[in-house]
Amino acid sequence: FRGHRSPEATMKTGNSSKRSTGLAAICAEDGTGTLFNIARATNAWWANQYLDTNDTALEGTTSAQPAPVVHNQLRDMEKLRKQCGRLANGSGKQRYPDLILCTEDYETFYKLSGSATGVRYVNPKALDMGFDNVKWNSTTIIPDVDCPYDAGGDDKAFFLNSDYLLLEYSPSLNFKMGDMIEGAEQLALSGHLYWAGELTCTHCALQGIHLGITGLV
Known about the structure:
disordered N terminus; alpha/beta
């Protein structure tokens, strides 16, 4: 995401007005709700893409005569990618998600499909920063242990177009250290570290969320 100095960056309401907007708000599981005071139910152009496939990632059989493997996850990923890139904003690959943040099993299921779909590549820049990843088309897939499951308890992934996501912050409160004070009952100094900002999105229709992926059979 791109950082941007903004004196008008504001915090959102959760956690006593100390929590900024998260990806779950920008990429709602059903594409509805109100984001940045715009109701998606009456403003469809502000809704994110979503696909609840309720599919097993990789289907087949373990019998003596196995059936052809069906790559449900790859098929659904292609479908959602095309939904996100349907609007001709930007040029070429800028229309499509360039980052997928997902549950760990979602990435595992994708890797397991590699035995039939070819070699997997990584994004070396993300790897150098310590992020385990794998490439799909021009998109970097990064698993995140903190990525929650969907409402049905299945694995999910955020399909993100970072060209339209911006981390706004106040230049006067960008990890600014407050005054250090001495504790009342100990020889130690403590102080507050301040940050004020917001994750914003300028084009929600180019963002997506993939729901309903389950394990192998």
